Structures are given as C-alpha cells and as structure tokens.
Amino acid sequence: MSLPAPDTDALAASHSLQQLIAADIEQHGGAIAFSRFMELALYAPRLGYYSGGAAKLGSSGDFTTAPEMTPLFGAAVARVAAAIIAQSAPDIIEFGAGTGRLARDVLAELARQGVEVRSYTIIELSGELRARQQANLADLPQMRWLDAMPETFSGVVLANEVLDAMPVELVIRTGDGWRRQMVTVEEGAFAFVQAPLGDELAEQLARQVPDHEQMIEGYVTELHPVGAGFMRSLAAMFKGGRGAAILFDYGFPAHEYYLDQRIGGTLMCHYRHHAHPDPFYLPGLQDITAHVDFTAMALASQDAGLPVLAYMSQAAFLIGAGIGELLLENDPEDARHFLPQSRAVQKLVSPAEMGELFKVLVVGQDVELPDPIVRADRSHRL
Question: Taking a C-beta distance cutoff of 8 angstroms, is the pair 164, 289 a contact?
C-alpha cells in the first residue's frame, strides 16, 4: 500500500502496541479473537488509537465527521433534541464527542431557541480527544465528563459515529461451516487463523445473519456483540426515565448488510485520510471500523425494553429536522460564507455522499418525535 509514512515517535508507539498485543496472544495460548485485537488496537491504555495522543480528526488526522463540516449539522440535531427535552429533562449525554464541535453547535442552537440545558455530559474513551474537548468547551458551564454511563437518565443521548468503532467479531464461512476469525503471530507478523464459533457466537450468527446457511465458502462478515451490548446498556440507563437516544452511523439493515457482493465484509481502516482493508497495518496509528448492522442494534434495544422510535437515512433526518431552513438563514448573496455551508449540507444529504450511506436510529421511551421525523420513519425496513 502507498500510504503516508509515520514519524519516528509514531512508529515506536505502534511497535510498543504490537508487542503488547503479541504478549496478549501468547498469554491466551497463541491466538485471540479479532474483537480482542480490535479492542487493544483502538483502546489499549496510552497506545491504542483512541487512547493515544495522535490527532484523529481534521486535516492532520485520519477522517472528518459530519459535525466538523458545518455547524448546521449540530443545529439541525438541536431542533429534534429540543422536542425531546420538552417531554423529558434538560440533560444531554454525548458518547464519543470528537473535538466537541457537536456539543458546542447543539448548545448554541438550543440557546438560540431559548431552551435551557442543565447539563451536557460527554463520555469519552480517548484521552487525546477528551483533552481537546475540555480545552474547546471550557467556556460552557453545562459541560462535564464521565467515564461510564450513569445508572439512570432522562433526556437526550447523542452518538455520532460511535457504533462503528466498537470491536466486532469476524466470522468466515468455510468448508466445515462457519468459523471464528482469530489473530495469531506468524513469522513476526499478525495473521488470521480459524477456530470454532462456540455456542454464543453461533446463536448470534443465526439471529443476525439472514440465510447464513446458504452463504458461499469464503464469505467473511462481522458480528456485533459489543454494539448490541451498548444498546442494552442504553435500555438499562433509560429504565425509570424518559427520553431518546439518536445514533448516527454508516451501515445497513440486515437484508442489505449480508449481500453476496459483500463477501469480504465491511471492515475498513482509516489512516491519514486514506481508506484500506488491512487491520494489521501499524496498530495504534489507524482507525479500524465496521459498518453497523442497524437491524441487530434495533433488536438489541427492543429486546432489552427500549423501543425503536425511528430509523431513516441521514438525509431524511436532517431534512426533516430543518437543515435546509437553517441554511437559508444565511444570506445567499454572501457567497464567501454561504457557499461553503451549502456545499457541506449537500455532502451531508446527497445520496452520492453521506446522505444515504449514513443512517439514523432513534430509540427511546415516553416521548414523541417531531412530525417531520415521524413521517420520514422507515423502521419497517429494518
């Protein structure tokens, strides 16, 4: 692969993480589940991608998210959040808040609407990003940070591109049936080996993957036990409370996720604005993600007692939330300001860009969503 070369310090950090992962493999008898490899690559203390010190977002990082493109994304989200707050509590939790841009934009629009927010809590696993958030949001008195979910909660939960960064299990269809992808060390490099699924993963495969017994040999896909666990935790947190969680991410419902042409799965890595499929390249220096199976996430929430309120494309959500009206509050004659905002909105809602690939799942209880969002609901497609 032709990718930008890391500096000496970054290479040294990646080498230290590789040694840590290799030691973990040795301690576990010579192989670990891919989900464990992904967990260490992303979240190992001080060395993992999200827990290390390298920049993640922006021109110097590895990718850009919707809130970084335009403040209109956060303003549109705030319009839906305001309706939920009016029926629940003036509190917001955001998971994986990036640079803090979404928090600032949501709070700014809510303030403009006269909606008072009592607390805006960020739950962030990345030390580098938490430090940036605390610096960027130091002037906002509502801000606080937690390491874990509260036991109970009422209000609004936001999660933009959080589910895709949760460790996944890789499974492969072989001549002997479905097997679990494990990671070992061969000749000094990480490599895949296969192991039996075990009862728990076999049950999840049968529940999650339609027609799994008819898939061809060599088919690789992801199972999402950590993501499903996160949805169950949301359900537990909302028990006794009221409100809704709004989750943005790229992915598909099950009937689209496991198509024949996705024989290699959806796992993807991001390094300095380059996308590639090798999860073993420079561990700790690249993001590793998988598309979200929104059917599996919806079922996990619903089975845990937290109903699905809506599911739709990002384009449908943002248009229903009024992002077009927000754009037109800017003077089109002021081309220097208007055109960048217009281009960003186009990227967010265009079917050829982020509008259709990104989806929005809303789960919650004892609240009603604004009518335009209800009309855009496509949860029957899950």
Answer: yes
Residues sharing a CB contact under 8 Å with residue 199, sequence separation 6 or more, in sequence order: none
CA–CA distance, 197 with 243 (Å, rounded to integer): 37
Q: Kindly report the three-state secondary structure assignment for every residue of the chain.
A: CCCCCCCHHHHHHHHHHHHHHHHHHHHCCCCEEHHHHHHHHHHCCCCCCCCCCCCCECCCCCECCHHHHCHHHHHHHHHHHHHHHCCCCCEEEEECCCCCHHHHHHHHHHHHCCCCCCEEEEECCCHHHHHHHHHHCCCCCCEEEECCCCCCCCEEEEEECCHHHCCCEEEEEECCEEEEEEEEEECCEEEEEEECCCHHHHHHHHHHCCCHHHCCCCCEEEECHHHHHHHHHHHHHHCCCCEEEEEEEEEECHHHHCCCCCCCCCCEEEECCEEECCCCCCCCCCEEECCEEHHHHHHHHHHCCCCEEEEEEHHHHHHHCCHHHHHHCCCCCCHHHHHHHHHHHHHHHCCCCCCCCEEEEEEEECCCCCHHHHHCCCHHHC
Distance CA 87, CA 280 (A): 47
CA gap 43, 33 in Å, rounded? 15
pLDDT tens digits along 21-35: 999 999 999 999 999
Instruction: Express each pLDDT in 130-188 by its tens digit.
Output: 988 999 999 999 999 999 999 999 999 999 999 999 999 999 999 999 999 999 999 99
Q: Is residue 19 exposed (0-12), middle (13-18) or buried (19+ Cβ within 10 Å)?
A: exposed
- Can you read off the two tokens belonging to residue 155? 């209000």
| Token representation of residue 24 | 């973990």
pLDDT tens across 318-369, in order?
999 999 999 999 999 899 999 999 999 999 999 999 999 999 999 999 999 9
pTM of the model: 0.94
